[in-house]
Write a structure and sequence with these properties.
disordered N terminus; 15 strands; 4-stranded parallel β-sheet; 9 helices; single chain; Rossmann fold; Tumour Suppressor Smad4
């Protein structure tokens, strides 16, 4: 279909939780009232979001909008990024439900479908970095070890009603049986090997319901923020206070925090990861940041964006 310069096309992907949401429908009506084209796609299974996003990109949509949390955003982004290389559209996000860490850190309005859609309509897409672990892309954060295991064991009904606090409760229940994992991290100018309770790979800043695991991360700087919580003779509980300091300062004597364009993770035992809310497990992982790979609608002066001169040229 030929489109005038003023007219844009949007594919809005949502699940049953957002079905019938009055604010979302009002926002769709406003977009159509401005002369834009809107396609609504309800998913029944998570894989539907990836398929719909891929199809929309290949059919020339200007923007694919994910209505949901970090998991829905991940599914939509993977649909676009794993599709045809010559088919690339922008992504927008309307936070809905739980697990809205990326939106919260980026300044996208929460609990405000109209406000989030207004950002998408008004804001020119800016290219952001995208992380990749083996064959899967991620937009926000990958956690491993204790946090990923807690997330995998948190019941869906608890997530729906308690949000990030549900992960905290599950984590408390696991502390008595907590075991550190034998891991090795290798990257440019960096190597760490030992026993670790937890680790995270941040393109974004927050995970697990608002915890700042990557306080210095910016989504267009060409770097991934790696945080490692080593095993301690004192156990995990004393490290929680130390972790709070990392969230504010970015580094401590007891917790490792570095920025790298890529990193390898290897372990002799099975490691659980949580990739933007989706569980993954294995023993060998390659993480890499793909700079400025995906256009994204973000609020003006979003705190997770850096200035052009602050970016790192990873090709050097």
């Amino acid at each position: 279909m030929n489109k005038s310069i003023e007219t844009r096309s949007f594919c809005i992907i949502y699940d049953q939780r957002a079905e019938g949401d009055a604010a979302l429908q009002e926002g769709v009506d406003r977009i159509r009232g401005l002369g834009h084209i809107v396609f609504l796609k309800k998913i029944d299974e998570p894989i539907d979001a990836t398929r719909y996003a891929s199809e929309a990109s290949e059919q020339g949509a200007d923007t694919v909008v994910a209505v949901g949390g970090d998991g829905m955003l991940n599914l939509v982004a993977n649909g676009i990024l794993q599709g045809r290389k010559d088919a690339r559209c922008a992504v927008g996000l309307v936070p809905f439900g739980t697990g809205n860490d990326f939106a919260g850190a980026s300044g996208i309005p929460l609990n405000d479908s109209l406000g989030a859609l207004d950002v998408i309509i008004r804001a020119t897409p800016v290219p952001i970095d995208v992380g990749r672990v083996n064959d899967t892309y991620f937009i926000n954060v990958v956690t491993g070890g204790f946090p990923a295991e807690a997330a995998a064991e948190t019941p869906g009904i608890s997530k729906e009603f308690l949000g990030g606090f549900a992960y905290f409760l599950t984590g408390l229940a696991k502390i008595g049986s907590l075991a550190a994992r034998n891991v090795r991290f290798t990257g440019p100018g960096f190597e760490w090997k030992g026993e670790s309770y937890a680790f995270s790979f941040g393109n974004g800043r927050r995970a697990g319901g608002g915890f700042k695991v990557s306080p210095h991360a910016r989504i267009n700087d060409g770097l991934m923020d790696l945080m490692i919580v080593p095993e301690s003779e004192e156990g995990l509980l004393p490290l929680i206070r130390e972790f709070a300091r990392v969230s504010n300062l970015g580094s401590t004597e007891k917790i490792v925090y570095v920025q790298v364009p890529w990193i390898d993770l290897d372990s002799p035992e099975t490691i659980h990861l949580n990739v933007d809310g989706e569980p993954v497990k294995g023993r060998n992982f390659h993480f890499k940041i793909h700079p400025l790979k995906l256009p994204f609608h973000l609020p003006e002066n979003s705190p997770v964006l850096c200035l052009p001169h602050e970016r790192v040229d990873v090709s050097k």
